[in-house]
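Subject: sequence -> structure tokens, single chain

Hey, anyone have a minute? Need the predicted structure for the following. Not urgent.
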Amino acid sequence: MIKFNAAPEFDFDEWATLHERDPEAFEARRRALLAIELAKGGDKAGPARELLERLEGQLEGKSAAERARLSMLAMAESARQMTERLGELSARVQEHAALQSRRPRGAS
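Reply:
Had a minute. Here:
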């Protein structure tokens, strides 16, 4: 029997074995873990929750290969959006630093 890995590290082999032996248990565990992580986000998790619901709808009834392909596309899009937002944040931090460096000492 596979024991739940309570360590913060992700054990791919454990998850893969569970998927092979008991796909329904894998799916239940996956959904439970996602629900726990979203609950940790509190009110700020709304956009992530909506994105997950949209992805789940797209994946329903698809083959494992198609689910993996669609999940990877969604992950790549999410990474692209995050990179874009981080670029915007970096630009703002640089602007703020430039403004701060032009201020006379002692000015608030």
